[in-house]
Write a structure and sequence with these properties.
This protein is an all-alpha fold and 84 residues long. The protein is built from 4 helices and no strands. Pfam families: Cullin_binding.
Length: 84
């Protein structure tokens, strides 16, 4: 349900990371629901961490689902790096 609501809420001005966030939620069926604090802080999260998540600070008081998302994205990006 949260995925559909995020698509609706951001239908006019979509944060760059929205699609990656939604993919993360869809790929993790163990996430049964999104806590209210995560829902409430998502816009703030998108504005503070930047499009590439480089400004994310895991020592700040973000919901743990954001920690999981950033870790997931970092792992995905590292898998795309070729080592010589």
């Amino acid at each position: 349900m949260a995925i559909g609501l995020w698509k609706l809420v951001f239908s006019q001005k979509e944060p760059v990371i929205l699609q990656r966030w939604l993919e993360f939620l869809e790929e993790h069926p163990s996430i049964r629901g999104v806590p209210k604090d995560t829902w409430d802080m998502f816009l703030n999260f998108t504005e503070q961490v930047g499009d590439d998540l480089s400004s994310y600070d895991d020592t700040e008081a973000w919901p743990s689902l954001f920690d999981d998302f950033v870790e997931y994205e970092n792992d995905r990006q590292n898998q795309n790096v070729k080592s010589f």
